Amino acid sequence: MVARSQASTSDISVLIDPETVLLPSFISSLNHAHNLEHDWFLVSLSPTVPDFPFQLCDNGKLWVNENGEKIKAEKLQGFVLENGKWSGYSERVLMAWNRGTWPLHAGVLPPFLYGKGLHNQWVINEAQSSRFRLVFDASETISSFCPKNLQNREHSLSLASDKEIKERTWEHVGNLHNAILYGTFYFSLNNYSNIPTKLVKCDGKYFFIDKVEGAVYFLGQQTGRKRWMACSEDSSSVERKLASPLKISSKVALNLSASLYLPFSLESLLQTTADEDKSIVLLVAGDSYRDMLMSFICRLRQLFISNFIVYALDPETYHFSILQGLPVFRDYMAPSNISFNDCHFGTDCFKSVTKVKSRLVLKILKLGYSVLLSDVDVYWFGNPLPVLRSFGPAVLVAQSDEYNETGPINLPRRLNSGFYFARSDPATVAALEKVVKHASTSGLSEQPSFYDVLCGEDGINRIGDDRCLEPETNLTVHFLDRNRFPNGAFQGLWGKSDVRSACMRKGCLVIHNNWINGRKRKLERQVSSGMWEYDSSSRMCLQAWQGMA
Description:
This protein is of the alpha+beta class. It is about 30% helix and about 20% strand. It contains 17 helices and 28 strands. Strands 18-17-16-19-22-21-25-24-23 form a 9-stranded mixed beta sheet. A 4-stranded mixed beta sheet has the order 1-7-3-8, sandwiched between helices. A 4-stranded antiparallel beta sheet has the order 11-12-13-14, with helices on one face.
């Protein structure tokens, strides 16, 4: 959100929760701030109103009461002040700032997940500590509120106890760690902090009251003591009503020396992330592929796909995933000594990593969830799950690795175990058990085991040009149409000048960035194609508007 404002040419940026209702005083306060000769940053907290008896009519131009009578803005604002419930620091704080000369703060903005806690609190703290701008509290002049029925527990920003942390999602935990690790936020937590400069309205004019200096300022000039006393008393009475809402708690449950750990088991992550059909997208990655993992996840977010979990092969990827707000887990299956640059197809590292994938899939199937296993070097143009689910039970659908443009696509060892969908049904579970057992005694990767078990050695269980039938479990294997699910060698698509357009014309749902040796070459090919969605320098997803500045 903040990054997008920095790419905008607008004179003023406002960051506000969409559930907040703004009253007319917002515009007049913003106009006053716009006339300041300084770079500025204002903050305003919105109370919760339990029962708001007014409603908009005439296409949102008028407020009326239950009898349809027009209500003046002053009465609305008075009602909010009288009946609003102020609950300390909230994610529903409104922030606004001018484009100006100076940045908002001196630090680097962490890769927060917006709406999952601490984003606004961190930005306010950094804006204050950097002292680049005039930071002031406009809660007394900007009337706004949030209807109680829209209030969501996820918006709470209070730093919590260990017990409360365990009840939060991985997203809140990741945001908490990011807030502590970036900038000065961690070092400010031991001090009760609020914003000393307040914008107030007195005698129809706007004033700044500095509680620390004990002075009132109007258009940059200090006013007399008599006027200061009157304005200060009025402001103090309102401030008592607000119960000093703009404060930063000093209660911290985690510290920098604590190890990064999420108190979530695989089972609990599945319960919270699986979709309504109990399907999950499983991603497996190690440290050498973490940027590609994030590019993949950024693409999922663009497609509004959230039913994924990440299995981290090493501590580095696990910690990185926590800080990126990902649903990540580890267990005893992970192999040791994973090579950073030498874990591509055919290497011993590759063989050990792939065998972990099939064991994980089997474990999840036995827990009652269907699994789409996708390597992170597969680029998704759309959500493939509806198509994959359409094949029905007792069918495992997988990508074909056949590179010849004509002929059967289910030839020996052409099943790609880097992209397949397995249902949680008896036939699939029984067949995967056979695959895992076969792979455990093989000196190869899991991929040949998939084909040799399900399609038979030399393809003796093949049916037609695109299927196999495993006779003992009666599981059908369907090889996906390469026009919609092409591998990295099919029709030379990766060699096209515009890979995306070439694929879209064919109706691709995904394309696999395989059939290329080496991590660096694979990475370079995907980045140069334009099908890359992650900025590793800022640890944030790339956005279309980033080219607008």
